[in-house]
Amino acid sequence: MTRVTVSFYSYFKDLTGCARTTEELSDGSTLDDLFRALVVQFPKLGAMRKATLMAVGVDYQDHTYVLREGDEVSLFPPVQGG
Amino acid sequence: MKQQVTITAEPINESALLSQRVMSQGTGAVVCFLGVVRGTEGNAHISALDYEVFQRMAEHQIDLLLDEMAKRWPIESVRLVHRFGLVKVNEPSLWVEVIAPHRSEAFAASQWLINGMKRAVPIWKKPVIGDR
Description:
The complex is a heterodimer. By secondary structure, chain A is α+β, with helices and mostly antiparallel strands. Helices cover 20% and strands 29% of the residues of chain A. A five-stranded mixed β-sheet of chain A has the order 2-1-5-3-4. In chain A, a hairpin with a 2-residue loop joins strand 3 (53-56) and strand 4 (59-60). Chain A is globular, with a radius of gyration of 12 Å. By secondary structure, chain B is of the alpha+beta class. Chain B has one domain: Molybdopterin biosynthesis MoaE subunit (Aldehyde Oxidoreductase, domain 3, Alpha-Beta Complex), CATH 3.90.1170. Chain B is built from three helices and nine strands. Chain B has a four-stranded mixed β-sheet with strand order 1-6-8-2, covered by helices on one side. In chain B, helix 2 runs antiparallel to helix 3 (103-120). The longest helix of chain B has 18 residues, at 55-72. Chain B starts with a strand and ends with a strand. The model of chain B has no long low-confidence stretch (mean pLDDT 96). Chain A binds chain B through residues 7, 9-11, 53, 55, 57-60, 74, 76-77, 79-82, and chain B through 35, 52, 54, 56-58, 60-61, 82, 93-94, 114, 117-126.
């Protein structure tokens, strides 16, 4: 199994009711698999699928990224800097 | 290219930043941009914006943008300050200074950097209605 931490930012914290959680997925799981697991736990995230940006550590990754043990994943809506 | 990036909850001190400006014999243009909080968001009147930042990633993404900027234009230096937390109407949330030999590259690089920030740097804002 692969254990990762997930942080939520902006209004994703309101949708999930938390800033951080952990997930355990089978080895070889991708960010897409993680998102689907999170939607089971936090159904309100489901509607945000197309508007969700995902990062591992400090770099953006797409949904095909294969998760590794200890990855720090972040999920958030489109950014609004400036 | 010299670079200085600050992400802070403190108000942006423009006069201090201006007093620390460093130019070379080759400097021909200084473009300074202030992003200021507007008093309206959509149709609503607001008193402030509450900025949230994922700081470690924001610093990294700004570094990536600055690396790319240095490849595209012959920029001497860039300084950037972005606030987080509560920023009241008419206060600046973003201060950017780009120093270059010529105005064309200074303007182009500034515009490109700010557009890049809006696309890639994990900062979000929430409108605040009424006093807080």
